[in-house]
Design goal:
The structure is a homodimer of 366-residue chains. Helix content of chain A is 32%, strand content 24%. Chain A is built from eleven helices and 17 strands. At the A-B interface, strand 15, strand 16, strand 17 and helix 11 of A face strand 15, strand 16, strand 17 and helix 11 of B.
């Protein structure tokens, strides 16, 4: 059920060490199957999840040039999304500016849904329902974000402080974007019911966002004009012009550069079971568990043998046999060239191991 | 300092699952570097350890045909031992019979030292001193074994019950070969000082052993005669004849078939720090430990990062990066196609995992 004028832009930059060694510099988190389905990469699930909202030719994925080819292969063949390959990583604002301009040129009435490639959603119908509400409000000119009702006093997320209802049912004003809180404040946010997690999902008319970028990021807006002129005047392909202008763009998030500065942002609260899958702990929570609460992430789970073990998450490469005996609550992440073993509760400390490897000059596996 | 007439026969058959996945059907324990030196396979250390006692051309290694080529490559180049490749595994008695006959044909006064390929010795000088005593006694016609003074009430070994002194200094009579005891008896053996571990190391004149085999294993003796006749009469190579006769030999240990039946066996007690390296636990005990009692068995230990971890033994294949964070007393054994993670104290339960894999038909990695 595609809605007229809706465009999708999946933001698939990103790097990080939290899922090392499964994730690498050239193999980011969104390529990993960290959600409930151990066979579907997060980016493939993300694209498929929003596919009912827009046709394939109006779906874009913005990623780094080095990831473009692998990204194309990750996306379901039935959704031949257009991949916008950034020559350099510049955080999310330039990515959104580019996608906005692409949509605007194709359809002056375009409504753009921007969302990260590496989150997980439990209730996909609920998620799309929330997006449809946001699309309705955005069609009327609002910049709308999705706000996830908190289920715990999370200190790792930014929050949206919710104000009064708007004229659109289920849509509220945002009073403020709130930085990651300390635990007492996170606990208060959980109690007061007026704070929602900022999931980094935005919906807006391309024309509205283009105007906001003109105001708050004029150098990016001018750069995108230069790209358009380059193509329009027959000077060459869009990629060439992007190559020219992107390096001069500031590296800044769309939240910070635009959303927190525009006069008004609205929010659709949702209980769609969103997770940013920020750690192996989160991936274990999402995964299908055996009778002893183990989660096996492997192409062929029959190659993984667990004896007297519980609460353990195992990620194994294709064809690898893994035998785990008598352990509890571990993370065991194997890849062809690197292995991690740690308690699930300490998996985030993988950064220490990565730093130690970097110090030893073993940068090939980072 | 080679002694005249001394021949060495290293018994390197053997298979087993205790070191899976580092050991496999086609890659037995003696190929692994499980002793103090993480770079030297047990079989290479064994051959090098006895090299001062006999020249390379009088050193034999008896192994299975499938292991012959790899065995040759494992042995230090300076010791071009002769590899006797058995067409089928028949336990140790036929292997000893073959090596005995080879030595006897080359030197009627041959004294043969038979020892397993997969043990570890801490005090190599003490070990060779004990062997030299055994060689002296064997030269006079005795069948002599080495007996290791127990350092703990071990229930996993056979024992030698020691009797009176012989005319040779430091050499005693063996009253009986004792099966693996239960714990109370093992504790008694430790206290009484009259019981030594049977390390499976024997020294004898080849002529004496040949006569003992004639008496106690007549079909093997006759088979070896047939092999000799085959070669002597120009009917073909020794290997062909071995191929013919070996399958008909009984599969029986030299201990059971001969040693326990001959009228007298002598023993040289020794404190040479012998270990049969029967488990990852034993390998951890032998290994060089870091300040947190971790043992790393890897070609390049700088690829292994341990953070806040203790008492853990890690075996990693060439080039593999291993990061271990916040764990205690684990065994982590990685190989290109299989991985084991277990508490060190439960590493012997790897058999359960191997059985589970076999049941699932994953026999390729066993």
């Amino acid at each position: 059920m595609h809605r007229a004028h809706v465009f999708i832009s999946v933001l698939a930059g990103g790097s990080g060490t939290r899922f090392w060694p499964a994730s690498r510099k050239g193999w980011p988190k969104q390529f990993l199957a960290l959600g409930k389905d151990p066979h579907t990469p997060l980016i493939a699930a993300t694209v498929a999840r929003v596919a009912p909202l827009a046709p394939a030719e109006r779906t874009m994925v913005v990623t780094g040039r080095a990831l473009a080819e692998a990204t194309r292969e990750m996306i379901p063949r039935s959704i031949a999304a257009r991949v916008l390959a950034e020559p350099v990583a510049k955080n999310t604002a330039p990515a959104v500016a580019w996608a906005t301009r692409v949509a605007l040129k194709e359809d002056p009435d375009a409504v753009l849904v921007v969302l990260p490639a590496d989150a997980y959603i439990e209730d996909e119908d609920g998620f799309r329902t929330a997006l449809e509400r946001a699309i309705d409000a955005a069609t009327s000119g609002a910049i709308v974000t999705l706000g996830v009702r908190p289920s715990r006093p999370e200190t790792g997320y930014g929050y949206l402080h919710v104000g009064q209802a708007t004229e659109h049912p289920g849509v509220f004003e945002v009073l403020a974007f709130v930085e990651k809180p300390d635990l007492p404040r996170a606990q208060q946010y959980l109690r007061d019911g007026r704070h929602l997690w900022n999931a980094g999902i935005f919906v807006f008319r391309a024309s509205v966002m283009d105007a906001a970028i003109r105001e708050h990021l004029p150098e990016v807006w001018a750069g995108m004009n230069e790209v358009d002129a380059h193509v329009r005047e027959g000077r060459g392909a869009e990629e060439e012009a992007i190559e020219q202008v992107f390096p001069s763009f500031p590296s800044v998030s769309i939240d910070y550069a635009v959303m927190e500065k525009v006069a008004r942002v609205d929010v659709v609260p949702t209980d769609c079971g969103w997770s940013d899958v920020g750690s192996w702990q989160a991936s274990w929570e999402l995964g299908d568990k055996d009778e002893n609460n183990n989660v096996v992430r492997a192409e062929d789970p029959t190659l993984v043998v667990l004896e007297d073990s519980s609460g353990t998450v195992i990620s194994a490469p294709k064809g690898k046999i893994v035998a785990v005996i008598g352990v509890d609550d571990l993370v065991i992440v194997d890849t062809p060239d690197a292995l991690l073993v740690a308690p699930r509760s300490r998996a985030q400390d993988v950064k220490r191991a990565v730093d130690a490897l970097a110090k030893r000059g073993k940068t090939g596996a980072l």
